[in-house]
Each structure stands twice: as structure tokens, then as C-alpha cells.
Specification:
108 residues; mainly alpha; 81% helix
């Protein structure tokens, strides 16, 4: 999950022109690229550092919504590129449930 998120955040910043075109095709405005790259990076930091449980939960929620929206956008336009988002969702859920199990808190 970390690798996928860092890769996409990096592409949003360093391959901005190409990714902007993809965002427009998906129906999203391209001005979201920089804030989304920032949010992904900060979300990963929140998950890695484990400083605040509330912040970590919000980071997981943000990633979940991001991955769901990515999968649905690709599915709706029929480009067949929704598989990475589905993999990211699975990895996110595994990460979240593993963290909850380690914390001894199995409630969602």
C-alpha cells in the first residue's frame, strides 16, 4: 500500500502533465493532483508514525475513499485500469485489520 501510494503521489507531482490528462478523462479536475499528492504523503506519515490513533483512523478512511473513487472512476469509463485500485483496497484493509489486531482492538 505504501509503495502504491508513494508511486501515485510521485507521479502526480513529477508527471503532472500526463496524469492531468488521465484525471480529466476520469472526470476529475486536474487541480486536485497536488493536494491529493500532499494528502497521500501526509496520510502515510500518519500511518507510519502512529502518533495519534484518531489521525491514523482518518488517514485510513481517506485512503479508503481515494481508492474506492479511483476504482469506480476507472470502472465507469471502462478503461480496465481499476485493478491497481482494487489491490490497494485489499492491501489497505489488510493493513488496517493488522494494526487493529496488534492494538488488541478488533472493533471497527
Amino acid at each position: 500500500m505504501t509503495a502504491l501510494s508513494l508511486m501515485s503521489a510521485g507521479m502526480y507531482i513529477f508527471n503532472h502533465a500526463e496524469i492531468s490528462k488521465v484525471f480529466v478523462v476520469l472526470g476529475y479536475p486536474s487541480y486536485l493532483l497536488y493536494p491529493l499528492a500532499t494528502a497521500k504523503t501526509l496520510g502515510l506519515i500518519a500511518i507510519w508514525t502512529n502518533k495519534s490513533k484518531v489521525l491514523k483512523e482518518w488517514a485510513y478512511a481517506g485512503f479508503f475513499f481515494d481508492f474506492i473513487l479511483a476504482a469506480s472512476a476507472h470502472f465507469m469509463i471502462g478503461d480496465g485500469e481499476y485493478a491497481p485500485a482494487l489491490v490497494a483496497i485489499v492491501l489497505l484493509l489488510v493493513s488496517h485489520f493488522s494494526w487493529k489486531k496488534l492494538e488488541g482492538n478488533t472493533q471497527l
